[in-house]
Amino acid sequence: MLEDREPTRMDVRLYTDAYVVRGWISTYQRRLSDLLNAADPDFLVVEEVALEEFRTGDVIRKAPFAQINLNTVLFAVGEQTVESKPEFRIPKVREQALVIVPPFRITGHIHLPQAAELRSALMGLTGRFLPVTEVTYWSEALKEPQTTADMVAVNHARAQIFAPYEEPNVWRGLEGESVQISAESLAADADTEEAAAPAGAGVWISDSETAG
Prior knowledge:
The chain is α+β, with helices and mostly antiparallel strands. The protein has helices at residues 32-38, 118-123, 175-196, 207-210, and strands at residues 8-16, 20-27, 43-52, 59-69, 73-78, 92-101, 104-113, 129-139, 144-155, 160-162. It has a ten-stranded antiparallel β-sheet with strand order 4-3-2-1-5-9-8-7-6-10.
């Protein structure tokens, strides 16, 4: 039983509607998603809390404790990487996905129940907070830059999930063309410089050579 061992400290970042909450939680759970899904009913107590502004990261409030409303949490980031124990692993299928939790976008792997097709697997995706691994997240609206993380837990009720997802390659089909354009541009620049250079340009004449 969980109560048979000592609780551990889990450092977290909670991205809410308005702020980023940093702190730590005393828990018997090993994984962040398990911790959030086990919270009862809608609140979580965080210790040594710092409340930060988006974009700047400026700390606007500190407190020894804070009760956080989980309904306002868009997603949570764990500061430690925790592997699940083999005996607790349930066979799942990894799928690359885009998760939109306005105003944030998250790309990474969702872990789906085994099913014959992706539609059925997505229908079987349950849980209040869903783990997403090998993550990149950002917000253009908030000017939050791309940040990577091993895992985040996403508020399922606030999320739209698109799968399968492939990162767009903006250079696709342009590799050969860009090389050709670059070569032509260099040649044109060289011709322009040669035509514009005055006679004797680049030749230094000393006073002794002009004497007499």
